[in-house]
Design a protein that fits this description.
The chain has eight helices and eleven strands. The chain is α/β, with parallel strands linked by helices. It has two domains: about 120 residues, 3-Layer(aba) Sandwich (D-Maltodextrin-Binding Protein, domain 2); about 80 residues, D-Maltodextrin-Binding Protein, domain 2 (3-Layer(aba) Sandwich). Strands 2-3-1-4-11-5 form a six-stranded mixed β-sheet, sandwiched between helices. The chain starts with 5 loop residues before the first strand and ends with a helix. About 35% of the residues are buried.
Length: about 220
């Protein structure tokens, strides 16, 4: 950890774009250039450093202490247990964890084993254990919607935002599991030694959040 700068890991992609807008809304992200291929942006005046990383790597950078803070979806937090603090829910990145499949597919009280394709095996196991439904997990890293279409699985578990991809492939949400949104996370040591600057940042994010919600 850099003692003089607050380092923040942001995920590349849509969630990161929304996070950048959020930081710019509090005057903290003006150094980030959206059309640049750079991965590190430094604001010497405010003593801030932003790192753009793969979404799946945000928690690794924060846990290791390379980054003090990070922005990540709560779906990733639920799936992977790391030694870090979840500090603040943010008002963007909204979607849901859902079970999806062909219309009429039974997902509970089945006598046979329910085959589930997913990128989230841990979250899926925990959810269906509470439902007392026997399952078989088929771990996929992408295009999980294909699995029930070709007979690899009965259903899928994935995060759903608009449902357009499901509909385009003849699938639908069978059950909503839980809501998902962006979260601010922290390295525990950073939170201890940079407590005041982190709390000040959180206060600013809370205030701009309320403004965005009100205007929408």
């Amino acid at each position: 950890m850099n003692e003089n700068y607050l380092t923040i890991a942001l995920p590349k992609g849509r969630l990161g774009d929304e996070a950048i807008l959020k930081f710019k809304g509090i005057g903290y992200g003006d150094v980030i250039l959206s059309d640049s291929r750079k991965l590190i942006f430094i604001d010497d005046e405010k003593k801030l450093k932003f790192m753009l990383v793969k979404p799946s790597d945000v928690m690794t950078y924060v846990e290791s202490g390379v980054a003090d803070l990070g922005i990540i979806g709560s779906d990733t937090l639920l799936e992977d247990e790391k030694n870090l603090y979840e500090l603040l829910p943010l008002d963007f990145g909204f979607c849901t964890f859902a079970v999806a499949g062909k219309k009429g597919e039974e997902i509970h009280q089945r006598d046979d084993v329910l085959r589930i394709a997913t990128k989230y095996p841990n979250t899926t196991k925990k959810y269906f254990k509470e439902k007392n439904q026997a399952i078989e997990i088929i771990k996929l890293n992408g295009s999980v919607e294909l699995a029930p279409l070709v007979g690899l699985s009965d259903v899928i578990v994935d995060i759903v935002e608009t449902g357009k991809t499901l509909k385009a492939n003849g699938l639908e949400v069978l059950e909503t599991m839980m809501d998902v949104s962006a979260r601010l996370i922290s390295n525990p040591v950073s939170y201890r030694f940079k407590y005041q600057i982190i709390r000040d940042l959180m206060d600013k994010l809370k205030k701009v959040g309320s403004i965005y919600v009100k205007n929408n």
